[in-house]
Structure formats: structure tokens, C-alpha cells
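Box 3.1. Reading complex inputs
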Amino acid sequence: MTGPVLALAGGVGGAKLAWGLAQILAPEELVIVVNTGDDATFHGLHVSPDVDTVMYTLAGLANPETGWGVAGDSSQVLEMLARYGAETWFQLGDRDLALHIRRTELLGQGKTLSLATQELSRSLGIEHAIVPMTDDAVRTVVNTEEGEMPFQVYFVKHRCVPRVRSVTFAGAGEAGVSPGFDRALNEAGALVFCPSNLYLSIDPILSIPGVRRRIASFQGPRVAVSPIVGGEAVKGPLAKMMTELGREATCTAVARHYVGLCDVLVIDEADGASAAEIEALGIRADVTPTVMHGPEDRIKLAQRVRELVGY
Amino acid sequence: MTGPVLALAGGVGGAKLAWGLAQILAPEELVIVVNTGDDATFHGLHVSPDVDTVMYTLAGLANPETGWGVAGDSSQVLEMLARYGAETWFQLGDRDLALHIRRTELLGQGKTLSLATQELSRSLGIEHAIVPMTDDAVRTVVNTEEGEMPFQVYFVKHRCVPRVRSVTFAGAGEAGVSPGFDRALNEAGALVFCPSNLYLSIDPILSIPGVRRRIASFQGPRVAVSPIVGGEAVKGPLAKMMTELGREATCTAVARHYVGLCDVLVIDEADGASAAEIEALGIRADVTPTVMHGPEDRIKLAQRVRELVGY
């Protein structure tokens, strides 16, 4: 091994594999770079949903039923905010809100999102590095048949119902990778794409200038875990979006998305029949159980990924 | 009657009389102008303790045990903020925090504190006008034997223990009265000093350029209710401060503070013996029960005040 494993992650699915990797890799052996295209301001507070989910998951605080938010949280603040006329379609529990209040305060003091994330992670006892993809504002915009909408409006307010035409990343052209992401791209010995939404979690990371090229020319092993299992997304709107974007909701279509960016695609046993098609694209297919029901599944999948990257 | 009653108030004691006045005067007959010298920023949120207390009291939400905060509030957010390393000596309940979050958002949108207060008050169903004394930053600073400290540090963190040498109001020189206060000073038919701390609640209001002069030349009846009863403050550090500042903790000393500013000082039956001394200062002493144990006491005192101002 020549450097840490660089794992690219979105929210819930990515956080589960990241948690698994964190159980079997030492803090210096893993850097988790997280999508921030979902970031949004609610009630004047900076919410970074994927970073939050990864932090809560690694800290053991995540709500096991939803995968996001804090387990056992209450909603006193939101009830009062509604009374003050604030829009409250975005769920924010009381314990969760503390994170956004504190982050917003740190950002207001001039700290970068990277530094704020580092400070907050450490406060929660997290030893592994959680790094936002950028310290600049990159915002995912979903272009639907009902018009263009910010990611959270599409995802939470409209529950992913509008048909998607395309996804863009406002601000990406002017954004730079965060210092931690830059360092990891230079120093990492292997790269892992966690099983996250291709369009909403992985593409925002790839949208930052230079990232796609640096991953394409990355020297170590590159492994992706398919977020599609048996023609369906394990969680979220990915399968629906693939269909709306004119693709099939299959592991082969996932592989096509990763051509030139990864060497091995881990697919579930349910998709073993796609292996030949995937390999025809120049990507090795590795068939293993990928659905993570509980902690043991996460660790098993992480172990398989570690083997595949040769750690 | 020629205009509304203008009531000047600080926190808990002032809020009680303001509540009483609001029960017997129509919304157009009362303007409550509130001290903002206690305002402070906690966790990046603008907290306006006296305005909050008056709002919660008029909305029927105030914690009856403390007089401030929201009844039955929880503290999930603060517990997590402590975990993130934030200083949490200033108590902020979950339901209470929503007010500060929303106010901070409104201020961030460019609204003045007056407009934010108006919007928040109305959301809580309050019909009477609650007006901050100024929309500018006036901050009470307490000069103690242990050094100079911002009001909340003295009041909450150090529980008023350090001996006070003087009190100053940073920013007062450059501050202006809020539009609602200005209008009330022009249009009010009577003026009431609620039973609030002379140095920490009334003086900040008087520190804004022009206010002392305008009250001195105010044409209608001016009535103050003594915050000192039987040589003690009904609540808070007033009696202790009076002693530290070289004054006696008596109604006569209260009257001396109000010379030129009020025509009648309402004193409790416990202080009837001071009446002659007070009248020798040119202020009429009105002896009536002033301690407000419950809603009925508040209304009775408000009724007496209304009689005294001739409404």
C-alpha cells in the first residue's frame, strides 16, 4: 500500500460502505470525500446533508430507520419555526439542528467547510477523515418536466416525482477541489466509488474541474460498487432517474457511466448475468453480495472492496 | 385620551406589567418599548432577551417558574452544541431557539429588528405593539471589580456576583430610536416606566440620544412603578447594584433616579413610609400593592397605572 484509500460518497448508501471501511482501515488509511451538491440553506443555516449523514453514520448517531438524521431526535424547534411562518418541508430534528447551527457559526467565523467539518467530526469522536468535495458552492440543479429545481426541492419537497431531463451543477465551473480532496487525489493508493447515486452524488464530485481527468489518470486500483441491484436502486430515485434519462436501470448502465473512471465494478449476486456485458466495456465485474442490511454486511462488503484494491 | 400609553420595559418584571396593561388596553392604546441593551449573539444567533420575554409573556408562552424562556421547553439542541464545543452557559431551550433562528434569518434578509419583532409577535398572535428601543446595536457593558464584561457575561455567566462600579452602553452614542419608539414619543398620551431594573433596563433606553430630553419634556402624565419593594428588588440584582453604586436600595433612591422624568412613582404598601421623602423630590408617591404574584395582581397594578395616567 502506498497511500490511503480515497472513498467517494454521497449520503445513506455511501455512508454505509464508508462506515464499513472505517471499521477495517486505520484513520490514516482512509479519506472519505463527500458530495456537497446537496448543500442548502434552511432557516439561514448551512445544511450539508451528505456530509452530515456520513458524520452521523461514522459517529454511530444516525437514525437506523431513515439512514439520515439523528436517532431518536425530536422536532421542537421545527414546530416553532412553522409557527413563525418558516417553510418546514425539510425535516430537521432538534439534535440535528445543533450541527447546522454550529457549522453556520464556524463558517461565519471565516472557516472553510473543510475545517468546519473536521472540527465537527472530531467533536463527535470520528477519527477518520471526512472531507467535503469542495469548499466552494456547487449546487445540484435538477431539470425536470415541471421546471428547474434545486436538489432539495426536487428530492424532499417533490419526493423525486417530477420526471428528470438533466442534472446540472451550478457553480461547478468556478469551484476547486477542497485541500483534503486534492491531497487525497495526489496521495491515495486506491480509489473507491461508494454505492451512491450516479447523477446526484457521484457526478457532482466529477463536475469539479480537473477531477474527472485526475481520476481517469489515477495510478492505483479503482473500484466502484454498483448502486443498482436487480434493476432497482437500493435506496432513492436512481433507477427512476436512469429510465427518465433514457438509460436502462442495470449494472451495465452503471458500468457505462464509469468507463474510463474505474477498473472493477462490484455487482450484486442478483446481477451476475450482467458480468459479461460489463467486462465487454473494459471493466472487470466482481460478483458479491452488495446489499447492506446491517453492520456485518457493511463490513463484509468493505472487506471485499479492500481485497479488490489490494490493501 | 390623546394617544396610546407608551410603556418602557425590560424583561421579567416589565413584561408582567406590560401583560397586565395589554389585558385592559386595546392594541391601539398601548405601545411597549423594550430594552435591547441585553441583546447578544449566541451560536451565531441574535438573542434579544427582554424582547423575547415580553413576547413570550404576552403570547402566554412564558415559563411561569423563571419568567423567561418557553414553558415546558427541552434542551436537545444545547446538549449537542455542548458536544461540538460551543459555550452553553446561556440557557436556550429548543422551542426558544426557533425564535432566535428565525429572527437571525429575518435580520440576515435585511429586515430591521423592529420589523423582525413585529413579524414574530404577530406569528405568536400578539396584537399589541412590541417595539425594540432601537434598531441599532446598543450593548450594555458592566464595569465590575473583576473587569468590564458584556451584560450577559455579568448577568448569566457570573450570576451578578462581581461588584459593579458602573454601567455603560456601547454604541448608544451612534444609535437612534426605532421608528416605533420615535412615533410613540411623539404621539403617546401617557408614559409608564414598568418596574424594571433602573441601570440594566431603563438606563439603556435613556442612553439613546434624545430620549432623556424627550421624556423630560413629555406633555402627558408620566408614571413609574418602583422595582424596589421593602428595600429589595422583586427580582434580579437591582438592590445589590444600588448598594454597590453607593445608593440606598430604597424607593426614595428610585425616585431620585426618575427626577425630571416622571410625575408619579407607584410604591408598594411596604414602602408607604417613604412617600414623604419621594414627594419632597417633586414626584407624587402612589401607594398600592406592586408585587405581581399572578395574573390578577398584574391586572390590578395595570388598572391602577391606567387610573394614574388618566385613561
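In summary: The longest strand of chain B covers residues 164-170.
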